[in-house]
Please model this.
Amino acid sequence: MVCLDIDDTLIDFSAAGRRALAALLGRSDLWSRWERITDRFVALVVAGEVDYASMHFRRTQCFLGELEMAADDAEVRRFEEKRKDLVRRSWRLFHDVLPCLEWLRAAGVLLAAVTNASGAHQRAKLADLGLAHFFNFVAIAGEIGVAKPDPVMFHSVCARLGCDPSEAAHVGDKLGTDAVGARDAGLEGVWLDRHESGAEVPEGVHVINGLDELPQLLVSEFARIGVPAQR
Model:
C-alpha cells in the first residue's frame, strides 16, 4: 500500500493560496504569516476544540487583525469566501502526479490519500482535479480523530485496507509530519522534497525530489508492499 499526502504533494496548494492572498491584498509577502496562523488554528481542529468552518473564520479574523485591517464578522466572511473561490479556481496538479498514480494503479498497488485538512474540502479537490478514482481510501484527520504524525492515523489507514504498517509507504512534502511520522509508525517514510532544500534527513527516511522518482524507489526498496519488479 502507498499513502500520499494531498496538499503540496499532489496539488500545488501553496501556490494557489499565495496567488489568492496576493490578489486580495495587493502584496505577496504575507504567505508565511498566513501559514503560521493556519498551523495554529488547524491544531485546534485536530484537538477537537473547533470545527473546520469555525477554524476558517477565526483564522481569517486573526490574520486580518494582525494586519490591523479592521473587519466585522460579515467582512471577515466575505474575505474568506473570496479567498476560497480564488484558491479553488487556481488549483493545479503537479506535472508528475498523473503518471505516478497511473503507474501505481497499473501495478496493482492499494492507494490511500492521507490528510490533516477538512474532509469535504479535500474530497472536492480530488474530485475536481480527476484524482478521486485512483484512491481506495481517503483518510481525513477530523474523521479519524487524530492527525499526522500520530501513529494512530497511519495505523488506521493500514487497518482499513488490510495492510500491515511494514507493508506500506507514506509519501508527503512535510519531513516531520509525513516522512518521520510514517517511519515512527512502522511504515516506510518518504519525504517529497520538491525544492531540493538540502535539509538534513533523519535515518530511515527516504527522499525523492519528484513523484516521477517514486516508482523506481518502490521497485528497488519496497518490494514487500506489493510492487512488482520491472521486467
